[in-house]
Amino acid sequence: MFALNFNKIIMPIFYGKAALAEFLNSVKTQNSTIGFVPTMGALHQGHLSLMQQSLAENNNTVVSIFVNPTQFNNAEDLEKYPRTLEEDTQKIFQLNANIIVYAPTVDDIYEGKVISQNFDFDGLENQMEGKFRPGHFNGVGTIVKRLFEIVSPNNAYFGKKDFQQLQIVKKMVLKNHLNVNIIGCEIHREANGLAMSSRNERLSASEKEQAAIIYQTLLQAKEKFKAQDCKSVKQWVKDVFDTNTNFDLEYFEIADEETLIPCDEKTKDKNYRAFIAVFVNNIRLIDTISLK
Ligand code: PAF
């Protein structure tokens, strides 16, 4: 199928890469740019803000919606990941009917071989998410590289909530000499501070309210980091979650923003960032904050 018809307004939607490439070739001019927002769907305000930035900075904007199997290290998480293509395309249409949607099948992307490429991200992949989600970043690298090959964007937009992913994508682009600018965009939050995420859809109203503790703890950790060393701040966060039985802290880490190497001794020339992953009723939430 090629186009969705919303009240006689046509929005381009592609399920296959060949038709997408043909369409992009037809709209491309010598100086025009393509902005690209890769997503796994279940779109929220955070995604829409990435699209708005792309629309403001490019002639054409492509949004991909694809739940990528190779980046899930947990079969249940993959199975339960929300798939809401119809609502997603409605939201995109309401934002801007000129956005080009690419919603491929697994076969269109992986051509029968659903496996990851192995990447060397100079150690970025071994910290935090990498420790707890083996193979996750090879899956992310594989899909992002594949999508870049298909869409050939000039600019690609990623949220800073997945800050480690953002650094890894930048590294992948650098190492593979890909001609695309990677733009990191600010985190969008619910009114109570909870970072917007497609996984929030699986939280009950009361879990959502309680999950405000994640960002509140990050803000307090940032305050404490001004006067305390890394070890004490980390211990303080651990204690906060140890006394709260509704949450299961997977990790809290303070690391150098560039290398993602955990902070041992604070040094003045480094920019530090705090990273957290917490389970609420088996739903895994992550968040991050700059400690500058
Ligand atoms: O951040 C995400 O939603 C995914 O990891 C991405 C970048 C779309 C790749 O599947």
UniProtKB/TrEMBL annotation:
Pathway(s) annotated for this protein in UniProt: Cofactor biosynthesis; (R)-pantothenate biosynthesis; (R)-pantothenate from (R)-pantoate and beta-alanine: step 1/1
Catalytic activity: (R)-pantoate + beta-alanine + ATP = (R)-pantothenate + AMP + diphosphate + H(+)
Binding site for beta-alanine: 71
Keywords: ATP-binding, Cytoplasm, Ligase, Nucleotide-binding, Pantothenate biosynthesis
Signal peptide: none
Keyword Flavoprotein: no
Residues annotated as binding (R)-pantoate: 71, 165
CDD domains to which the protein is assigned, alphabetical: PanC
InterPro entries (alphabetical): Cyt_trans-like, Pantoate_ligase, Pantoate_ligase_C, Rossmann-like_a/b/a_fold
Gene3D superfamilies per UniProt: HUPs, Pantoate-beta-alanine ligase, C-terminal domain
Pfam families membership: Pantoate_ligase (PF02569)
Keyword Disulfide bond included in the entry's annotation: no
Entry's EC annotation: 6.3.2.1
Record-level Gene Ontology MF annotations: pantoate-beta-alanine ligase activity
Active site, per annotation: 47 (proton donor)
Localisation: Cytoplasm
Residues binding ATP: 40-47, 159-162, 196-199
Main location class: cytoplasm
Note: The reaction proceeds by a bi uni uni bi ping pong mechanism.
Oligomeric and partner information: Homodimer.
HAMAP family, alphabetized: PanC (MF_00158)
Family: Belongs to the pantothenate synthetase family.
Protein purpose: Catalyzes the condensation of pantoate with beta-alanine in an ATP-dependent reaction via a pantoyl-adenylate intermediate.
Record-given protein name: Pantothenate synthetase
Organism annotation: Flavobacterium plantiphilum
Gene name of the encoded protein: panC
